[in-house]
Amino acid sequence: EKAGYKHFMAKEIAEQPVVLGDAIKHYAGAGGIALPAGIDFAGLDRLTMVACGTAYYACLTAKYWFERLAGLNCEVDVASEFRYREPPLPANSVALFVSQSGETADTLAALRYAKEKVKKIVGVVNVPTSTIARESDVALPILAGIEVGVASTKAFTCQLTVLLLLALKAGLDRGQLTKAEVQGHLDDLAALPGLVNQALAREGEIAAIAAAVAEAQDVLFLGRGAMFPLALEGALKLKEISYIHAEGYASGELKHGPIALIDRAVPVVVLAPRDALFDKTVSNMQEVMARHGMVILLTDAAGAREAGEGTWKVLVLPKVADLLAPILYAIPAQLLAYHAAVAKGTDVDQPRNLAKSVTVE
Ligand code: M6R
Fold this sequence. Notes:
Helices cover 46% and strands 17% of the residues. By secondary structure, the protein is of the alpha/beta class. The two termini are 31 Å apart.
């Protein structure tokens, strides 16, 4: 069943070009975005997104997209907090629940809390027969195929893809994007599986970096804008399967505390495509280098040219449209965690203390 791979996680990482292609084809055809009837963001007062773990980080990323592309007021919360906080929900709002399994107890309880309060409940799930799918007004499958590894990989990038398509639809519905602009983004998206393949081809280089990272006690991940949630996800992935302590931070938060941790023994993974925020992130990275932190810069060729000097390692990824960078850069983050775990000899697919689906509180 592992199709020649050593672990399900490795197989699932490698499947991403195919499953992302499936999700893109399913939701975006020649006529533009193809979502089920009944998904309409026009005139909405708010979108609320709720999930746990990796699915929560997908929602945090999507907040950047919904705000930027659709001017939609967006709230994101972890399900375990949301359900007991009992937040007010405007009637003229949509609540969106993201879950690979569709069975996560807290996410399901949050969905039930939102029911009857909001206009529509949308479920973004991988298991189409799941409870969350059944109890949503509209369920959108992410089409990642069965995910066995406890560490979520292909489900994350497929969740991001479906959420991005929803944000583009919201942009259209709310008159913030023209059809031509949406088509431009869809063209970029069509090229994504090919870029993911190119990122996967860097596996050998990433494994070498991971072997060094495996020696560390603590690792930091930094990102700005939509790369910030990916910093959180990269840190979660690493700690889940390699048991190395890792934290993700917004780059700009560095000097508000975490910089105190930096010394010669702390690898700092900087997620920095050459986008509008690049210079800001680089200046944070230089603060790390000035304190002898071991910077691992993930960027594109232009970024490496401008800022690669003096870093410990640079991984050059293909140039990608700004909107899609969180999806593409997820690949090296996953591979880094995977190879660090392999180097440490931990149980990659069944990490200690964790279950694939958390069906109790
Ligand atoms: O099935 P779900 O997407 O609702 O699961 C949510 C989290 O339990 C899950 O993403 C967890 O954080 C993963 N182990 C992350 O790799």
